[in-house]
Amino acid sequence: MTGTIRLVLSFHNHQPVGNFDGVFEQACQDAYLPFLDVMQDYPEIPFALHLSGSLLEWLEVHKPDYLARLKQMASSGRLEIIGGAFYEPILANIPRRDRIGQIQSYSRHLKQVFGTDVRGMWLPERVWEQSFAADIAAAGIQYTIIDDYHFRCAGLPAQELYGYYVTEDEGRLLSVFPDSERLRYLIPFSKPQEVLQYLQEIAAKHENPVLVFGDDGEKFGSWPETAKHVYEDRWLRDFLDLLKANLSWIRITTPSEVLDEVTPTGRIYLPDASYREMTEWVLPPDAQKEFVTLTRQNPDDPDWQRLVRFTRGGYWRNFRTRYPESNEMYARMIGISNRLARLKAAPLASPEHEELLRQAEQHLYRGQCNCPYWHGAFGGLYLPHLRNAIYSELIKADTLLNQITHVDPAWVDAEVGDLNLDARQEVRLSNHRLAVSVAPACGGHIYELDIRTNAVNLLATLNRRPEPYHQRILDYVATAGQLDDTELAAISKEVKFKQPNLDQRIIYDKWPRKSLVDLFLQPRLTLEEFRRGHGVIGDFATGAYEAGLRKGVQKIALDMRRSGRVTDLTGEIRKVLIISADRPGELLIQYQISGFPTGLPFHLGIELNFAAMPGGANDRYFYDGHGTRLGTLDTALNLIDTDRLNLVDEWLGMDVSVESTKPAGFWTFPVETISQSEGGFEAVHQSVCVVPHWEFVMPQEGPWTTELRIVLDTSIARARQLANTAKTRRPLVDPNEISPVSVRIQ
Known about the structure:
Elements: E1 5-13, H1 21-39, E2 47-51, H2 53-62, H3 64-75, E3 79-84, H4 96-114, E4 120-122, H5 132-138, E5 143-147, H6 148-153, E6 165-169, E7 172-179, H7 181-186, H8 192-205, E8 210-216, H9 226-232, H10 235-245, E9 250-253, H11 255-261, E10 266-267, H12 276-281, H13 285-295, H14 302-308, H15 319-322, H16 324-345, H17 351-366, H18 384-405, E11 412-417, E12 426-431, E13 434-439, E14 445-451, E15 456-457, H19 468-480, H20 485-492, E16 517-520, H21 527-531, E17 546-551, E18 555-566, E19 569-580, E20 586-594, E21 601-610, E22 620-624, E23 629-632, E24 637-649, E25 654-677, E26 680-697, E27 704-713, H22 716-724, E28 741-745
Parallel strand pairs: 1-2, 1-8, 1-9, 2-3, 3-4, 4-5, 5-7, 6-10
Antiparallel strand pairs: 6-7, 11-12, 12-13, 13-14, 14-15, 16-21, 17-18, 17-28, 18-19, 19-20, 20-27, 21-26, 22-23, 22-24, 24-25, 25-26, 25-27
């Protein structure tokens, strides 16, 4: 005879900060609304629901009726609202003060919206570290739901995972529910009867078990082909009908009811972990392939499976080592969080400052949304609009804090320190319009270029690097011609391409796609050869530069120099980056090449990259010094003897002018990554690469020099004006005249 079982059904609905309105709307139409329509017809079946704060804010504006329905269900006891950190950050990715702050602020907001107290929280991406227990409890939360994988990593056998446990940190207690991986794979992809059979097995073997299902609400309509399966083919109704018919032995309950009625199974301390697939994705490509192969061996061998449960993959924080761009976002976020904390601890000059701090904190929290900080089966980090949204929020927070710390409307400043957390010193040059982050120890690159006017980081770029799934693309193309139609159709269900010929577009970068990347090139190198990463013959691209600052009242100069090699020749590059208060939308970069033998030919390229300005749209285009359009921003250009090139993004209201005092060749091309998302493999535009380059002979006397001027104009009106007016030139600025105040950068 089948025993009884408590079943918890919990769902997590989330859309990240910065996702398109159309995606929010489509998710509502495909998943959130039809799911609620069905659940309202089954009052006997309570459930728990978590809405991320970024989704809830959108729903409050666009779908108030949906929220009113949820509120009515919550007030009647049919629905438990689960809280969490407001904007769905990975808790391991933000400071402790922000963990507690985000959880508390979201609990207050949920109370205002739904009129209910929050007892539990959804753990973003189920990334767990034991110290979180104290932080979550300190924020007023009593329980969270964690993968049963975490419990297995702690050594618990499967038969001890049908209840909940209490964990502790710093004397604070938190209840933790194991989330059944088996149920997550059964629901909603297996037949309802198979789910019932699994519940029967558990009920028959264990006394008063509790089984928890917690998974993404997007599985119920938003994932490919699930809308038809779940709603048109009636999977959800059939499943709920089956549960309703078996309520004599299945008690559908909520997490809070379990806490109130069931004693904990015991006490446990869980190792650092996330859900199983996440521990695979964070590993480097070769290690990932090896680990997956190892853990999938001998699926039917019970001895092997007992051994495998003690294996663990990678550690979530290593996404920041796997993807330096993730670390750059993280370091920028940490710096703003620290700055905000210092200002909050200082005496406030006025009530206006308190409001500025409140607004800055909200933008900071939004800039901690987890999705673009990592990459797995979904786009995540590879989606430019999500990275751009994070930087937009962080820039807005930083700009608000500047209103407190800078009294004058026009100002210039410099910060020196380990800004990207690599144990080397970086420099951030700032004024009231721009913030320019430079890494002297890595090629003297500009790695972040913030435009305050429209809160855009024009260097939110992404390198092209190996991913394990690239091999699936290559293997598919290699074998497709050898398969019959039936075999090809079967494989095509697993390997889907959003664009043709993706295998031919898999390229890996040999240096960071940043700006002021100094490249000595082979003579007569072609654009196509350079696009493929060929022809670099110097060691300046990522070499360490010595650096020093000269500060003036209106200008600051960052002076960088490096002695290096080009083949077997030795010489020096000196580049001086100047930012000013009186021309706040301009960067001036002076180059001097010296020390190489005179009379010999050289080929120098200076790579610049511009993100947040996508190609393929008519309102995003190049034009030259005569105002002539040269194509959209995904156009490959090979210009000769040009002294100016402009990039326009009318949607952003951005016109970027790159000017050279010495006529140069200009190469441009799009940088595209080949990545995977829910819909399949796709090419994603990451940045526009612009490379002014010069072939010259070292002069007999003095250094070879040129000057780049980058004008960052956020007015389309000014862009049109520039196209119709004569070019003007500023005289070369002597960096030695800027200031007597110097700072050496280690």
